[in-house]
Structure formats: C-alpha cells, structure tokens
Write a structure and sequence with these properties.
The protein is built from ten helices and eleven strands. It is α/β, with parallel strands linked by helices. Among the domains are: 1-91, Arc Repressor Mutant, subunit A (Orthogonal Bundle); 168-265, D-Maltodextrin-Binding Protein, domain 2 (3-Layer(aba) Sandwich). The strands form three sheets. Strands 3, 4, 5, 6, 9, 10 and 11 form a seven-stranded mixed β-sheet that branches. Strands 1-2 form a two-stranded antiparallel ribbon. Strands 7-8 form a two-stranded parallel ribbon.
Length: 299
C-alpha cells in the first residue's frame, strides 16, 4: 500500500535508474508512450526539462540531475513514512536498506545469509535493498538515511550512529604464484625482504604493518576481488581475509607470507541510526543479525 504516492516522480526515478524509457517500461509495466506523457507532465509542472531523449539517447539535463537526487530522497522518505504508519497494525512492511562491505558471504562468523533467511521466513511485505560499499560510504549513507543498517569493519566511528560488535575477520599477507617470493623458503623471508616489494592497498583500510606501509602505494583497490587479481599477477603483495582466500579454492595461486608475524584482525560492527530502531523491519533484522552471530559463536 502506498499512502504517499507521486506517480510522476516514481516514473522519473525509474527511467533514470533503468537508463532510459526502453528498460523502464518493463520495470513500470507501462508503455513507452505512457512514460513519455508522465515525463512531459512532470516537466510541465516543474517548468524545465529534466532529460533529453531521442536519437542521441537518454541523458539528464543539469537541472534533471539535481531533480533526480531530490526525487529519489523524497520517494525514499515517503516509503519510510508509509511503513511507520502501517506498522501501527503490527505489520512488517516498507523498505529495509542494508549496506555491507564486499566479500562477507564467506565470513562464517557473520552468517549474513542465516540472518536474512530468519528475517525473510517471517510474514512480511518488506522491499529489500542491499548495497555494497566501503565503510566510509556506508557511514555517510547511514547518516543521510539512505541506509537503515550497515555491516562493516568500522574503524572510524561517529557519534551519530550506534555500533554493535559482531565478529572478527582474520587477514594475512599473500603473494601470487609468479611473484619472486612464492618459491623462496620460509627461513629466507623476513620483514626486510618483504619490504622490498610493492604492496597493494585498499583505499579504505591499510591492513599492513607500519614498517611495510608505503606513503606512495603503487596500487590501490576498492574491493577484495580486485586485490586478489592484482596479487595473482605476481607484481604485488597484499592482505586478504583468510576466509576469502579459502573460499576461492586458489589451487596454489596464492602463498601466505610470514604468517607468524604478518597477520591482522578486523572487527565487524552492525551500525544503525538510533531513530531507525523504531522501525519494526529494522528492529527485527538487527535482532536476526545478532542472533546469527551468536549462534555461530556457540558452535
């Protein structure tokens, strides 16, 4: 049920999200001509063009870019408003926007899939949205209300959010099969030797010892897949979560370096805005995440 509904704005946002009228007709379930009429009516109400469409393809105008951002925020707030009113009848409804960092599906102590299953097994009318981003981006989206819940190794915590510790993630340093260190005996590898090679670093978290960190990194990545790919080239060393490496079944593509000395731990937290905790869907999902982590801890 949509209590606050603006068909013109919903159509406009859907067209932008779909990259044009062609794909939007399937998402909206209406014809391209109907979409065109709605966009024309929206432009008439606003007094300016929001997009260019024709042989040159679909693109937003400068004002359209601004209008899209505001329309998306308004529709998101409207869905949250609807959910808050409908939840007075003890219904679990509305949006649940979850943010996570990449490569968490193999982190056994987190068991995100178990938490989601428990949540979805209940009768509900919830629209799920899952976003993958860096901890910094997730923090900003929580503060602005774009997300209700986020799960990540939040190293820099802010006062506006509430954090619940969930689990630990172990990282080690790896090299690829074509790297000069791959076949070197363990007793020949020390910090000084390792420091002579380029280390790939994540843009949002440098999980390496101070003596190995470079002030001018030769490679920076935004996710684990990119990190693993660069390590496998044989040109870089890099830290990866142990569970991620084991799940990839590398078949000898990676070698762990100096495991007795070079290992790090990240603490994963569940972060929420205190105001969101009054939403039934958010409350239930938070309970389910904590339950899943606790269930794993007891095994």
């Amino acid at each position: 049920m949509k209590l606050l509904r603006n068909t013109l704005l919903e159509t406009f946002v859907a067209v932008v999200d779909c990259g044009g009228f062609t794909d939007a007709q399937y998402a909206l379930g209406i014809t391209q001509s109907a979409i065109s009429i709605r966009i024309r009516d929206l432009e008439a109400a606003l007094g300016y063009r929001v997009c260019e469409r024709g042989r040159g393809g679909f693109r937003l105008t400068e004002r359209g870019e601004i209008a899209y951002g505001k329309a998306r925020d308004i529709l998101r707030s409207a869905r949250d408003f609807d959910a808050e009113l409908l939840e007075l009848r003890d219904a679990t409804t509305g949006d649940l926007r979850i943010g996570v960092v990449d490569a968490v599906n193999t982190l056994a102590d987190l068991s995100l899939e178990k938490a989601l299953k428990r949540f979805l097994d209940r009768p509900n009318d919830v629209r799920l949205e899952v976003v993958v981003a860096s901890p910094t981006e997730l923090t900003q989206q929580l503060i602005t209300g774009e997300l209700h819940v986020a799960i990540a190794p939040f190293r820099n915590q802010v006062a506006d959010l509430k954090y619940t510790e969930l689990c630990q993630e172990e990282h080690r340093l790896y090299c690829g099969r074509d790297h000069p260190l791959f076949d070197l005996p363990n007793d020949k590898i020390d910090i000084n030797i390792i420091s002579g090679y380029h280390i790939c670093q994540r843009s949002y978290s440098h999980l390496v010892s101070p003596e190995l960190q470079s002030t001018d990194p030769k490679a920076v990545v935004a996710n684990m897949e990119a990190m693993a790919t660069l390590i496998e080239t044989g040109h870089y060393l890099g830290p990866l979560p142990v569970h991620f490496v084991e799940a990839r079944a590398q078949n000898g593509k990676l070698r762990e370096l100096a495991p007795d000395r070079l290992h790090w731990t990240s603490t994963f937290y569940l972060a929420t805005r205190p105001t969101n905790l009054h939403r039934r869907a958010v409350e239930l999902f938070v309970e389910d995440v904590i339950w899943a982590c606790g269930a794993d801890a007891e095994r």
